[in-house]
Amino acid sequence: MPEYSEFERLCHRLRFALDVPTGHEVEDSHYLPEFVARVRSAGLQVTPTTVPGVAQAVSAVANGLHLAREPEVYIVADSEPNAFVPPLSIDRRPIVVLNSGLVSLLSQNELMFAVAHELAHLGLRHTSRTPAPRQTSEFQALQNRSIQRYAEISADRVALTCTRSVFVAARVMLQLASGLPSEHLGLDIESFIRQIDREPGEISREWELALSHPSTPFRLWALLRFSHSDTYTTLTNQGGCGAPIGEIDQQIALRFAEMGDGRLTEMEACLYRSSLVWAGAAMVMDDDIIEDGEVAALEHLVGEELAGKAITFARSNGRDAVLTKLSESLARANAASLATRRRLDQAVQAFAMSLDLDLSGTGAGRVLQQCLSLR
Ligand SMILES: [Zn+2]
Q1: How far away, in angstroms, is 209 Cα from ligand 1 center?
Q2: What burial class does residue 356 get, using C-beta atoms within 10 Å of its C-beta: 0-12 exposed, 13-18 middle, 19+ buried?
Q3: Ligand 1 centre from 118 Cα, in Å?
Q4: pTM listed for this prediction
Q5: What's the gap in Å between 368 CA and the centre of ligand 1?
Q6: How many Å lie between the centroid of ligand 1 and the Cα of residue 247?
Q7: How far does the centroid of ligand 1 lie from the alpha carbon of residue 324, in Å?
Q8: Over the stretch 320-351, which tens digit does the pLDDT of each residue have?
Q9: Cα–Cα distance measured from residue 123 to residue 127, given in angstroms and rounded to the nearest whole number
Q10: How much is the pLDDT for 1?
Q11: Which of 33, 45, 245, 364 can bridge 229 by disulfide, Cβ–Cβ 3.0-4.6 Å?
């Protein structure tokens, strides 16, 4: 069992339910030493004598998050208000890179929020899964984006627990959204969050699927919900008795589903259904005889309409064509999440049992074994 630091335990306690831990160790990839060398030569290292305000903010974050070592911090000349923590292994001294655009936009407290957010990605071990090295499909690329969006919710929670002020968090979000320093901004949180209400006539938010971050109004809404949780109350002694964190995570997951992520779930369900119907049709066709009882079982499994189409195809094209359809749909289904692929495997096995077939002796069983990845 790996031993977790106090920092990691805090991060894991604050993890959003859909932000599933990978359990992978972070491996320092080959480009990192070069990246670090470039930052060191191009930027300004933050020390109490070079950039005192930033040094103080980072020190306060390191204490608040119980980091074993103070991070090494650099500021680089880049007007984009952004920060980055390269994915070094958790045992190494963390490196924080702050763009000058972020430092000049945010006050010291606000900068603490941003730095804590970036360090949280390290403590939550998010870095090991991004960027995805070998994306097999557009669908899988979108899924990776979705995983990144869930990760942002967790990282914001760590930042809030460290800075303990929803007003600081709100100011950060407003400033990141507008690019304006706070002297221009009134803190109207409600109207900011209403910006993501649906427009009349708006059908889907599919465009959100391509974003690596949830919108800032959404992040702030999710963070305010979290600030009413029992976890936040216990950790910070703030707020009332607090609602169970599980309930709050459900509300946030539901709102994710109503937005672009709902479409992603639909796409996954679609991959599942199309593989299931071809596996079912292949089993029905296994002895080249289509019996009424088998058709009824397939209808029960995937619905009359889908079953009807597959059976019509099977009657006119034969068993081999059905097996080809199955292998094609399984190749696509491999882009779905592991949970969905396992559910698919179980459903196919259960269907074989209901037809009294030994799956491994059928063409469908062979194709399934060859084409469906269960890892
Ligand atoms: Zn982030």
Answers
A1: 17
A2: exposed
A3: 6
A4: 0.73
A5: 38
A6: 23
A7: 43
A8: 999 999 999 998 888 777 778 888 898 898 89
A9: 9
A10: 42
A11: 245
Question: Rounded to the nearest whole angstrom, what is the distance from the C-alpha of residue 121 to the centroid of ligand 1?
Answer: 7
Rounded to the nearest whole angstrom, what is the distance from the C-alpha of residue 92 to the centroid of ligand 1? 20
Query: pLDDT tens for residues 51-97?
Result: 999 999 999 999 999 999 999 999 999 999 999 988 877 778 999 99
Interval 221-237 mean pLDDT: 93
The pLDDT mean for the chain works out to 87
Rounded distance from Cα 289 to ligand 1 centre (Å)? 56
The mean per-residue pLDDT over the stretch 262-284 comes to: 84
Residue 278 and residue 299: Cα distance in Å, rounded?
12
Residues 233-251: pLDDT tens digits? 999 988 667 899 999 999 9
CA of residue 37 to ligand 1 center, whole Å:
23
Dump pLDDT digits (tens) for 173-206. Answer: 999 999 999 899 998 999 998 888 877 776 666 6
